[in-house]
Every structure is written in C-alpha cells, then in structure tokens.
Protein: DUF2027 domain-containing protein
Organism: Gaoshiqia sediminis
Amino acid sequence: MYKLGDRVKFLNDVGGGVVTKIVGNNMVHVENEDGFEIPVLIHEIILDAEQAPKKEEKPSVEQFIRQGKAEAPVREVVKEEPPVLIAGNDEPKFYLAFLPENSHNPLEGQTKIYLINDSNYHVLYHYSHFAGNEYATQEAGKLEPNTKLALGTLSQADIAQLPEFAFQLIYFKEKATRLEKPLTRKIAVNPVKFYKSGSFSKSGFFREKVMLFKLNEGPMDKALEELTEKEVKKVVREKEPARIPQLKVETPELVEVDLHIHELLDSTAGLSNKDMLDVQMAKFREKMEEAISDQAVKRIVFIHGLGNGTLKQELRRELSTKYKKYPFQDASFQEYGYGATMVVLRRK
C-alpha cells in the first residue's frame, strides 16, 4: 500500500512523481515533475526505488548534545500556479461524470467518477453517498476553476447497488459583484444506464465517451431529465401539425422489465438474498404472464444486470422449464450490455 510522500513511476507513461493524496483503495493522486497533480490507479504505478530519497540518519545522543538542539529541516516552498480562467466562461457549470474504461462495453473493467468544474469559479466541495437514512462522506476539498477531479471508481459489483451521489458546493470568485447561494444536489443513477452504450456520449472534457449529469441544473433542465421517453414523444406529437387519424393504433411490440431490486422495493431492510430473489422472480412470472396474454407483445426483455449471476441463472432455468416453448437469448449488447435476457413470444 502506498503512503503520502512515496515516489512512484508510471507503468503506462514516461516519468513519475510523488504521491500527494490517497483516494480509496485503488487510486492515488501523483504530483509529476511539472507540478501537476494527476489521479492514477494503483495498478498503473510502482515504487521508484532508485529515485527514492534516502532516509536521514537520526543523530546520536552525543551529536544532539554537541548541537544543543536538533535543527529543523528546511522545507521547500512551492509556488502555486494561478488558476486558469477562460474568457466568457463566467456562468457556474458543474458536472458529475462517469468515465468507463471501455465505453463500448461499460461493464468491462472499472468506471471512474469525476467532479467537473467547467467555470471560472473556485469551488469548495463535499461529496458523500446517501444510502438508507444517512450520508457517508467520501471526500471534501477545493476545486480550482476549469478543472476536473477523480473522486473514485466503480466496479461491476458497485454498479449493481449504487447509492445516491450527494454534493454540497460553495462556489465563488476572487472578485465578484454578488455572493452565490450554496448548491446542494443528490443524483440517483439507474444502473440500467451503465448497460446501455447510448448512455455515454462525447464531451469536451474527455477523449472517450462519458455519462454526464449537470449538478446546477435549472428548472427546465430538471423537467427535461424527468420526462420519460413516452412523455417526450407525446410533447413532440403535440407540437407537430395535425395528422389524419390512423384506422389502427398499434401497441408496443417490445416490453422492458427492470428486475433490479431497488426498482421493485423502496427498502430491502431485513430481507435476505433469498427473499430478494423471490421478489424478483415473482415479478418475472407476473410480467411473463401479462406479455403472453397480450397478443400485441412479441418480445419481452428482462434487465437483470450482472452481479453474481444468480438472478440470471434462476430466470433462465425457469424459462427452460416452465416457459420452454418460448425461445430466449441475450438481449442487444449495444442496448443492454451483458445484463439482459430477451424472450421471443411471437414471430413477426
């Protein structure tokens, strides 16, 4: 395990630096030779044994007596670089970002979490996880203008049981004509988003595709985010010119069912893993029967996620026995990754 002050080398890049911050169990911040602080995964660095400074020998008692007192080591004063201000970037814009190692398959590998300050404001931040009835502090500090900060990583197991991500931000300028109100925001991310490659898109913050959430959204941003796909289509239809009514109104041929336990229950307190699996399987059977009886439904997709695979195995076991007349397969990888099963009820 690394500790503050350790000199390290980068495995995937030239050079190295000094560990200045430890973030969880798998990430540290390293200050390189140019004075920039870089978030790096632990498995991407090694100790720099050759460049590590030798430990100062502790003076003997005789030397200490002769000197009269131990001399304090001289500390080098490092001059801080002024923050980078961008002309016209004076509106507060803050984001929570999820950056997967592989945006084509977000569940392959880990996903980094970032706090982004896309403005000329200085930000004092407090980052916590909300689960149950309490906030668990993860990190607090200061974010300079027009910078981003790695807050940690998510594994596949973490994605299956995400907390709400909570932020408290106080933002200010060194010279301003008004005081800004502190910002408090909680973001609940549906794990299904990580199974769909369409949830990740290009941005000006990273070379790779990323999932972004705006922290200081306005009323219109929030309203748009809460609109379901069905409501969006309804709004679009209302804005379109009137059309001649069709004789036949078709119902959806594809049904999606999210079996994640937090989508089925408000709380899992007091429930064992078996209890939760029973709830999920009961929902599976209920939706299967509804889809079978609805002649319009031709395919049904059950989103079960990866996790330890128990739900997926139980679901497919029952499909192979109780519902063996209906073929099933992995759902579209582009839409759901490896976390969903599609059942074909009727051929087109």
Notes: Helices lie at 61-67, 156-160, 219-226, 229-239, 261-264, 273-293, 310-321, 333-336.
